[in-house]
C-alpha cells in the first residue's frame, strides 16, 4: 500500500513538472513531440524514487529541445538533494554539466559572453542551490528521527527502572550469599582439608573430614547454580582485594600478593572467584596474585591432594562475560606444571560504543553543516563565477565617461580609432552601431551606444 502511494505521488510530481512542456507541445499540434514529451514524463516518474539524479539529467537535456523543461529543474535538484546521499556523484555531475554546457555554448551555439554568464547563474540558482536545500532538509529529517529515537530509548529505559527496582533487592541478596556464604563454605572446605591431613588422625575421622570437604565443595557449586539466576554481575563490588586476601589468610590459605599501581575494576571479582575455587578445589596450595592497572593474574599451585570433581564452572563463565563487557579478556585453565591460572587483561584502547546523546550530537552537527553549505556554497560560486567572468567581459571594451562626453557627431570613425576601445561589448545592436561598457560589475553590460553612417558618428546614446 505504501509503495502504491509513493508511485502515485511521484506520478503527480512528474506530471506537474512537465505539464508546461506537454501544454506547449499540444498547442503546437506536433504529434511526434507530444509522444516524446509523454515518454519523457514516464521516464521521469520511473527515476524520481530511486534514480533522481538520472531524472535531473533528463530535464537538463530536455531544455535543449524545449525551454519549458527549465521549470522542472529546481524541483528535480531539490529531490536529488532530498533522496540522494552521494555528495561526490552529484557534485561531479554538476561540474560535468557546467563544463559541457560551456563548451557547447561557445563551440556550437556561439553564445555571447553575457548570455553564458546568465546561464551559469541560472545553473547555480536553479540547480545547485535547490540541491543543497534538499540536502539540508534530508539532514534535518534525520535529526528529527534521531531525536524521536532518543526519546523512545529514554522512555524504554524509564520503564525498565521499575523492573530493575524489583530485581535489585533479589540481586543484592544473591550477591551477599555468593560473597559471604560461598566464601565461608570454601573456608569450611579448606579447614576440613587441613583436618583431613593432620598427622596421627584416625582413619575414620580423616575420611569424615574428607567427606566434609567434598560436601562443602559440592554445596558451594550448588549454591552458585541456584542463585546464579538472581545475581547481578553489574553490581558494584564492595571491599578491596587486600580485604579478600586477609580473610583467606586468616582461614589458613597461603597467599603471595604483588601489586603494581591501582588495580582495575575487575580485579576484585577475579581474585574473589579464584580464591573461592582455590579453597574448594585445591586446599593447602599456594596462591600467587599479581595486580597491575590493566591486568590481574591469580596462579594456584598444584594441590597436595586430589581436587574435588563435579564443579560446573559457571562462576568462570559469568566472570568471563563480565570481563568482556569491561573491554577485556579472561583466560582460565591449568598450566603445564599442574597449577591453575586465572588472568584478566583489559584493553584500554578498545573502541567505545557511541551513546544516544553522541549520535544526536553528530546528527545536529551534520544538519548545521548542511545548512551552512546550502547558504554559503551558492554565494561563493556566484562570486567566483562573477570574478572570473568580469575580466573577460571588460577587457578592451571600457569607454571612459569623459571620452564619451567629448565625442561629437559628424566626427569620422577613423579619427576616433585611437580614442575608442579596441573591443566592443556583446549585445543586440542596430546595424552600424557599436556598444561599449563603463566597467559595471559584475555583468559589464553595455552602457554606451555609438551609431555611424557613411563612416561618420551620427548619434551617441547613454544606455544606463
Describe this structure in words.
- 60% of the residues lie in helices and 11% in strands.
- The protein has 464 residues and is of the alpha+beta class.
- It has 3 domains: 2-154, no CATH class; 236-350, Histidine kinase-like ATPase, C-terminal domain (Heat Shock Protein 90), CATH 3.30.565.10; 401-462, Beta-lactamase Inhibitory Protein, Chain:B, domain 1 (2-Layer Sandwich), CATH 3.30.1450.
- A 5-stranded mixed beta sheet has the order 1-2-3-5-4, covered by helices on one side.
Question: How does the major sheet shape up?
Answer: 5 strands, mixed
Percent in helix: 55-70%
> If you compute it from the alpha carbons, what radius of gyration comes out, rounded to the nearest whole angstrom?
43 Å
Helix and strand content put the structural class at alpha+beta
The main sheet orders its strands as 1-2-3-5-4
Please give the number of β-strands. Answer: 8
Helix and strand string, N-terminal first? HHHHHHHHHEHEEHEEHHEEE
Task: Describe the oligomeric state of these chains in a short phrase.
Answer: single chain
Low-confidence runs of at least 5 consecutive residues: 232-236, 308-312
Gross geometry = elongated
Percent range for β-strand residues: 5-15%
How widely separated are the two ends?
Answer: 61 Å
Mean pLDDT: 75
What count of structural domains? 3
Number of helices: 13
Amino acid at each position: 500500500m505504501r509503495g502504491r502511494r509513493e508511485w502515485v505521488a511521484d506520478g503527480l510530481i512528474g506530471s506537474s513538472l512537465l505539464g508546461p512542456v506537454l501544454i506547449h507541445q499540444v498547442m503546437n499540434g506536433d504529434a511526434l513531440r507530444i509522444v516524446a514529451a509523454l515518454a519523457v514524463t514516464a521516464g521521469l516518474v520511473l527515476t524520481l524514487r530511486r534514480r533522481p539524479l538520472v531524472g535531473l539529467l533528463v530535464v537538463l537535456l530536455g531544455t535543449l529541445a524545449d525551454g519549458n523543461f527549465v521549470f522542472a529543474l529546481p524541483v528535480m535538484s531539490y529531490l536529488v538533494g532530498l533522496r540522494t546521499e552521494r555528495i561526490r556523484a552529484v557534485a561531479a555531475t554538476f561540474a560535468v554539466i557546467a563544463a559541457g554546457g560551456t563548451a557547447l555554448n561557445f563551440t556550437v551555439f556561439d553564445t555571447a559572453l553575457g548570455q553564458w554568464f546568465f546561464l551559469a547563474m541560472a545553473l547555480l540558482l536553479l540547480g545547485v542551490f535547490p540541491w543543497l536545500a534538499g540536502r539540508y532538509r534530508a539532514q534535518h529529517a534525520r535529526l528529527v528521527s534521531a531525536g524521536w529515537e532518543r526519546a523512545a530509548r529514554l522512555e524504554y529505559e524509564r520503564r525498565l527502572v521499575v523492573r530493575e527496582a524489583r530485581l535489585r533487592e533479589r540481586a543484592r541478596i544473591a550477591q551477599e550469599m555468593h560473597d559471604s556464604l560461598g566464601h565461608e563454605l570454601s573456608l569450611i572446605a579448606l579447614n576440613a582439608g587441613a583436618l583431613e591431613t593432620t598427622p596421627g588422625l584416625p582413619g575414620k575421622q580423616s575420611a569424615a573430614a574428607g567427606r566434609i570437604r567434598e560436601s562443602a565443595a559440592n554445596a558451594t557449586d550448588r549454591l552458585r547454580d541456584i542463585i546464579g539466576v538472581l545475581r547481578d554481575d553489574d553490581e558494584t563490588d564492595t571491599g578491596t582485594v587486600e580485604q579478600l586476601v586477609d580473610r583467606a589468610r586468616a582461614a589458613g590459605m597461603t597467599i603471595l600478593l604483588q601489586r603494581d599501581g591501582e588495580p582495575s575494576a575487575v580485579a576484585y571479582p577475579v581474585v574473589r572467584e579464584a580464591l573461592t575455587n582455590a579453597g574448594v578445589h585445591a586446599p593447602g596450595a599456594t596462591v600467587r596474585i599479581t595486580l597491575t592497572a590493566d591486568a590481574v593474574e591469580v596462579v594456584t599451585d598444584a594441590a597436595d591432594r586430589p581436587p574435588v570433581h563435579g564443579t560446573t564452572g559457571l562462576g568462570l563463565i559469568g566472570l568471563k562475560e563480565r570481563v568482556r563487557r569491561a573491554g577485556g579478556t579472561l583466560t582460565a585453565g591449568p598450566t603445564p606444571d599442574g597449577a591453575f591460572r586465572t588472568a584478566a587483561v583489559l584493553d584500554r584502547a578498545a573502541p567505545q560504543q557511541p551513546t544516544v546523546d553522541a549520535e544526536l550530537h553528530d546528527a545536529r552537527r551534520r544538519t548545521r553543516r548542511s545548512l551552512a553549505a546550502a547558504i554559503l556554497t551558492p554565494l561563493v560560486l556566484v562570486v567566483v563565477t562573477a570574478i572570473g567572468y568580469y575580466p573577460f567581459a571588460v577587457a578592451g571594451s571600457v569607454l571612459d565617461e569623459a571620452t564619451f562626453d567629448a565625442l561629437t557627431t559628424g566626427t569620422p570613425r577613423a579619427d576616433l580609432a585611437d580614442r575608442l576601445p579596441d573591443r566592443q561589448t556583446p549585445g543586440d545592436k542596430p546595424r552600424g552601431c557599436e556598444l561599449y561598457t563603463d566597467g559595471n560589475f559584475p555583468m559589464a553590460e553595455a552602457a554606451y551606444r555609438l551609431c555611424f553612417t557613411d563612416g561618420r558618428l551620427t548619434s551617441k546614446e547613454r544606455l544606463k
